[in-house]
Design a protein that fits this description.
The structure is a single chain. By secondary structure, the protein is α/β, with parallel strands linked by helices. The chain folds into three domains: 65 residues, no CATH class; 349 residues, no CATH class; 107 residues. It is 59% helix and 7% strand. The protein is built from 24 helices and seven strands. The strands form two sheets. A four-stranded mixed beta sheet has the order 4-5-7-6. A three-stranded parallel beta sheet has the order 1-2-3, with helices on one face. Strand 2, helix 2 and strand 3 form a beta-alpha-beta unit. The longest helix is centred in the N-terminal third of the chain and has 27 residues. It is elongated, with a radius of gyration of 28 Å.
């Protein structure tokens, strides 16, 4: 083994020179055959692209090394701030509908009920498995802790990816842009919803994919991460589609020239990695003879969901006018990015961020209903865009061009939010009704003020703290007392609560006797009305509790009048005992 010798190169804003100097240094290697020549570049986080130039050269010269300041204290400060902003989410009551559905389904899965057959919802497996992992004791708390960990992984990934695209300082800009958007209730980052859990998989998949080059292992892992993200929610497919289109634009000849087998191979490991988790889940469902229900949920019921409250799921396949407009917007945006790239008005990194942001935004518009947490999907693209935009504005461009870039960016985001906010999607989903006339940012202030008053100042009771969100826990407590006293002799698997509060089941320890845990699911699955009625008949449900104000339907009313008797009601619920077997 030869002894090592080396050259140390301190750099600051040397991006132009370093690409010429390094090859000349290693060109001297044959002149010193008795030594193993190394070069060490020490960079103090220069604002130009010195670090990126060195990283590219490392792929060519394996004895080239890079040391740079990593600002770990600032990263730790950002993570600490993120945790502090998320701590109030750990004290929230059982109030959010989606979490209630996940918890109710996880409860039934813990009793060996089969997802998509015995208990149903419209998302892929992983969000339900994660809530199952959270356990039956303190399920919400553990789900929120998992959500906190996923958020930390997301913001760290955004920092690393943004640093790769720009430099360390712009990486911090993206990092600190993402923190308040993800940590606060602004976009409902405090809720343990599917978007929060696929975000870290998307971000790290993008990083590994962008930096993979010819590294097949990185390509494969990148694809696997995208595949797992899609198993939390199908809209994550849009991120993968945007990334694949970036690869087609920049690393293949599918558009500019006649492609060959090498161009196909550049995409194959990404595609194969993406398919691995999906094939594993499909095989799992095949082994328990449930693949038909799984496929029906993903490819039939999903159309019902995105078109809800419309009942004609076929209409979505043939694209109603809103769907056509969305597709045209996606196509137009893709063409604009492609033309700018091939005319060399945009470099590869700008194309990467533009396509990811465009496809992520389209992911938020897939459903005919827009909820504010859908915007979490654009968090990676938006944070990276801020870093790229600042980098662009700091380049030596004419002042008028910089003003145009900035103005078009602001106008574009404004129009995107206006389009998304149809139907007041940006409102914060608190059920107390006291903040309905307040703006979005005041509601964020009120959220933290409510927590401080309860947990720190002790000036609010737990009941008043809960009331800020809604009155759900108090109502469920009333229902629970009635079930434990008046109806104590009825088995907990023979009680059905006709409600849109899925938390009712796991919170009170009631089994879900049919495959649907909420009323609105009858709209979001094919033949939902029949599934509900047939489930009640097959289960021979002894007690049906109707929540007042929840929409009924003719078939249920007929069934109730023929087989059940109203024996009690309170301010929130009506109680019906089986009078005869249906």
């Amino acid at each position: 083994m030869r002894p090592k010798t080396g050259v140390i190169l301190p750099t600051f804003n040397e991006a132009k020179n370093i690409s010429n100097v390094i090859p000349k240094i290693f060109a001297q290697d044959p002149a010193i055959p008795t030594y193993d020549l190394h070069a060490l570049v020490i960079d103090d986080n220069t604002p130009d692209k010195s670090q990126h130039a060195v990283r590219n050269l490392i792929k060519q010269f394996q004895n080239l090394h890079l040391i740079y300041s990593k600002f770990y204290p600032f990263i730790l400060l950002g993570i600490f701030a993120f945790i502090v902003m998320r701590i109030p989410s750990l004290a929230e009551p059982h109030w959010y509908g989606d979490e209630g559905i996940y918890a109710a389904i996880a409860q039934e899965m813990s009793y060996d009920e089969i997802l998509y057959k015995d208990i149903w919802d419209n998302k892929p497996h992983l969000i339900y498995w994660l809530f199952l992992l959270a356990g039956n004791t303190n399920r919400l708390l553990w789900a929120r802790i998992f959500n906190l960990a996923a958020g930390i992984a997301t913001i760290i990934g955004i920092y690393i990816l943004a640093t790769e695209l720009t430099d360390t300082k712009k990486g911090f800009l993206a990092f600190f842009t993402a923190i308040p958007l993800l940590a606060t209730p602004l976009l409902e980052g405090n809720i343990a919803n599917a978007e929060n859990f696929f975000l870290p998989l998307i971000v790290w998949g993008l990083y590994l994919g962008f930096t993979a080059g010819e590294n097949k292992r990185k390509q494969l892992i990148s694809g696997i991460l995208f595949g797992f993200a899609s198993l939390f929610k199908l809209s994550a497919l849009l991120d993968f589609a945007g990334f694949i289109l970036f690869l087609i634009f920049t690393r293949t000849r599918f558009i500019s020239k006649k492609p060959d087998i090498k161009d196909v191979s550049k995409l194959s490991f990404f595609a194969f990695g993406f398919l691995i988790p999906i094939l594993c889940v499909s095989l799992f469902e095949l082994t328990r003879k449930n693949f038909g229900n799984f496929a029906s949920t993903m490819f039939v019921d999903m159309f019902c969901y995105v078109s809800y409250p419309g009942k004609n799921w076929l209409g979505v396949i043939f694209f109603p006018m809103t769907g056509k407009v969305k597709l045209l917007l996606l196509l137009a945006g893709t063409i604009i990015v492609g033309l700018n790239f091939f005319s060399r008005k945009m470099d590869k990194k700008e194309v990467f961020v533009a396509l990811i942001l465009l496809f992520e935004y389209m992911g938020t518009l897939v459903s005919s209903r827009h909820y504010v947490h859908y915007l979490l999907q654009v968090l990676p693209g938006f944070s990276l865009f801020i870093a790229i935009l600042i980098t662009k504005l700091r380049t030596p461009l004419p002042l008028l061009k910089k003003i145009n870039i900035f103005t078009i960016s602001i106008l574009g985001f404004y129009l995107a939010l206006i389009t998304f906010n149809q139907g007041d999607a940006m409102q914060v989903n608190y059920g107390c009704g006291k903040l309905s006339d307040k703006n979005l940012f005041y509601k964020i202030y009120a959220y933290y003020e409510n927590y401080v008053s309860y947990a720190i100042l002790r000036s609010k009771s737990r009941a008043d703290y809960n009331l800020f969100f809604n009155n759900e826990e108090a109502d469920m407590e009333i229902l629970g007392r009635n079930l434990n006293s008046v109806f104590a002799d009825i088995p907990r698997d023979k009680i059905y609560v006709y409600t849109n509060r899925a938390w009712t089941y796991p919170y009170l320890g009631i089994r879900v006797p049919i495959c649907l845990s909420t009323e609105h699911q009858r709209y979001t699955t094919k033949n939902g009305h029949n599934k509900l009625l047939n489930g009640l008949k097959e289960n021979k449900t002894q007690l049906i509790v109707l929540e007042k104000g929840v929409p009924s339907f003719e078939g249920l009313e007929v069934f109730m009048s023929e087989s059940y008797k109203n024996v009690m009601e309170d301010g929130k619920y009506q109680y019906f005992i089986m009078a005869r077997h249906p």
